[in-house]
Amino acid sequence: MADGGVVQQQPARNGYQNLDRGQRNIPADQPLPQDVWYLAFLATLCSNCRDMCRLFRGPWRAVFGGKLEALVRCLCLPCNVITQAVNEQRANFRQSGIVYLYLFLGVTVVINLVVPLRHVVVPNAQNIQLYFVLGCIVLAIVAMFYLWLNTLETLEYRDWNFRAGSPPEALMRVFYKGGLYFFGFLSFGYSVCTAIDHIICGKQVSATVNVVKALYIVIQNLFLNQFYKARIPDDTYGIQAIMAHLLGTNLALWFWTLCSEEVDESVACKSYPIPLGNTEKYFSPLFVEYLLIAASLFYQIWQDLLPTQAVAAPHCRTCACQVIVENDDVENDDAENVDADQRRDGGRGANRIRRNLGLGIVLGCCFGVLFIILVIASAASGETHPIYHVAYSGGIITLYLIQIVACYIILLSAQSLAWDAQRTSLDHDDALLYISLVGSLLWEGFHLYSLVLIEIDPSIEPKSLPNVRHIDIAADALAMLQYVFQTTILINLRRHQPTQGRRTTWISQCLLFLLTTNIGLWIENSFFVEIIITTPGEKYTSIQKNLKPIGYILHPLNIFFRFHSAVCCLIAWSIFRT
C-alpha cells in the first residue's frame, strides 16, 4: 500500500479475506498458529514506529504536515499500541458501547442521587449536577449532527412488518412519532417558560440548562423523524459509543428529572414573570414519557446497526481478521501448515501447562497475602497513623494495575481463538456478574464523588488530609476501570473455543491469578469494609456517614461481585486448563 493510499476491499471467496502482501495465507474459519500474546503487541509497536519514521522523512519545512502528525503519534504511542494490538471484532464493538453506557449511567446515578439526600449538605453538588446535565446534552447534540452529516446518504431502512403478528407500521408511527411530537412539544414549551423565569431571577446556570434542553428536544425530534426506521451502515467503536451516549442521555435526563428537588421558597423570586405555580408535577411526567419513547427508539437503532466489512490491518500477521484470497491449492497447503503448527505448538503447550500449573496460584497467593496484611494494618491503625492507610492504598493500586495487565494478556491471547456458537447468549452467570457490577461501580462512584466534593470545598471536612485523599481518588478511579475490564474479559472469554498452545497457557495462568486475588478482595469486602461507604483505615467524612442508607443496598452487591468474579474465573479456567 502506498503512502496515504486506501486499502481496497475485495470480496471474500471460500472463507478467505484480504491480507497485506507478504503475510501468511490462513483460512478464515480456522484458528491461527498460537504465537504468544506479546508478539502481536511488539508487531503493533514496530508498525507504529515505522509509520512515524516515514512521516518524519522529507523536508523539515513541512512542520504542519507529516512532522506534526508524527509528533502527535509519538505522544500517543502507548495508547495507540495498547488499543491497536487488539483485533477489531464486531463483538468487541458492541461490548465497548455497553461498557460506555454502564459507566455513563453509573456516573449519572451518583451525581444525581446525592442532591435529593437532604441530610447531605453540599452546596456544590447541585451545580455539578446541572453542569453534568448540560455537558450530556451538548455532547448528544454534537453526536446527532455527526451521524446526520456522515451517514444520511447511506442509510438503509427496516420494515416493521417483518414479524408475524407485529403491529402495523401505521400504528407504530402513531405511537412513536405522535408521542414524540406531543410530549416533546409540551416539554419544549415548559422548558422555555422555566428558562425565562430563571433568567429574570438571576439563575444563569439553570436558565442555560433549560434553554439547551429545549433546543435538544427540537433537534432530537428532527433526528428521530429521519432515523427512527434507519439502519446505520456502520458498526465501529465510535458509532457504538455515540449510540450508547444518545441512549444514555435520555436515561440520564429521566433520572435527573426524578431526582430534581422542588424550588426552595427562601431563595425563590417573590414573583415570577410567568406564574407556573405547581405545574411542574404535571409537566415532569410528560417529559419522562418523552424521554422513555426516545430512549426506546435509540435502542432500536442501536440494535439494528449494520456491520461493516473489516479492513485489513497491516500491523500484525497473527490477527484473525487478516487472511488472503488465493487459489484452492494454496488454501490446502496453508491449511496443512496451520494444522502442523497447531499440533507442534499444542504438544509444547500441554507440557508447559502441566509444568506451570501452579504459577498463577502462587503469584496470586503472594499478592493476596501481602494485600491482606496491608488491609489488617490499615483497619487497625489507619485512623491514628495515616501512613498505614497510605500503604494500603498504594498496595491496592498496585494490585489493580497487575489485574488489569492480566486481563489485557487474556484479551490478546484469546483474540485469535474461534468463537463457540453454543455460548453466544447470556446465561445466568453473566446476568449475575452484570448485576453485581452495578453495585460495585456505584460503591466506588459514591466514594470517589464524596472525595471530589471535599476536594472542591475543603471546608466540608477540614480534618481530611489532601495527600491521602488524592491517593484514594486514584484508587477509586482505577478500581472502576478494573471492574469493567475484568467483567468484559470474563464474559467474552467463555465464548471462545479452547485449543492447546502457548496462548492457552497464558490464559490459564492469568485466570488463576485473577481467581486468587479476587478471593483476597472478597475477604477484604466481607470482613474489613463497613456499611459506610469507605475503605479500611480511612477517617469517615460527614458525607460518607450520611450515605450509609445507600451503603446498605450496595455493600452486599459489592461483596457478591468479588465472589462471583472468582467463580467465573474458575469456570473459565476449567474450560482452558486442558
From TrEMBL:
Where it sits in the cell: the answer is:
Cell membrane
Keywords, comma-separated and alphabetical = Cell membrane, Hydrogen ion transport, Ion channel, Ion transport, Membrane, Transmembrane, Transmembrane helix, Transport
Cellular component terms (Gene Ontology): plasma membrane
Give the highest taxon in the source lineage: Eukaryota
Membrane-related topology note: Multi-pass membrane protein
Q: Name one GO molecular function term.
A: proton channel activity
InterPro entries registered for this protein in UniProt: Otopetrin
Q: Which Pfam families match?
A: Otopetrin (PF03189)
Q: Which family does it belong to?
A: Belongs to the otopetrin family.
User: Record's PANTHER family?
Assistant: OTOPETRIN-2, PROTON CHANNEL OTOP
| Full protein name | Uncharacterized protein
Organism equals Paramuricea clavata (Red gorgonian)
